[in-house]
Amino acid sequence: MMAYHPDVTQQMPLMIDLRPIVRVPKSQRLPIEQRFEEFHRLNVHVAEVIRQLALQMWRRGAKHGSMKMIFEICRWQYALQTQGSDWKLDNSLTAPYARYIMDTTPALQGFFETRQLKSR
User: Which of 85, 93, 108, 115 gets the highest tally of CB atoms within 10 A of its CB?
Assistant: First the structure.
């Protein structure tokens, strides 16, 4: 069993940009790719938070990461550091974010596991 070290959080400070999220109206029944594009256009800061968390894992030697875990870290940090409105991240956006981050960050190419997109 691993011993608990209270100073472990001191080793890797977690800085998350907690600007509010602009929600995409739910009335829009768009394909996931278009929902991602609209959400990203309104919330560019979210991709940067995700990129920084993924790079932090990569720098620590992780060969692969979990976008779902990163989403939960974002939610957790927001809950700890704010009061009031929610920092909503739709779980259906994990795959598009994984692809976007790998496409735009050379060090993270192949870091997330993704499935082939189904053709429509």
Answer: 93
Distance of CA 21 to the CA centre of its chain: 13
Predicted TM-score (pTM) of this structure? 0.79
| pLDDT band of 88, cuts 50, 70, 90 | confident
| Cα 102 to Cα 50: distance, rounded to the nearest angstrom | 11
Tokens of 115: 């499935």
DSSP string, 24-84: PPTT----HHHHHHHHHHH-HHHHHHHHHHHHHHHHTT-S-B-HHHHHHHHHHHHHHH--S
Whether residue 24 contacts residue 42, with contact meaning beta carbons closer than 8 Å, is answered with yes
**pLDDT at 119 exceeding the cut of 60:** no
In the block, tokens 């109206």 appear at 25
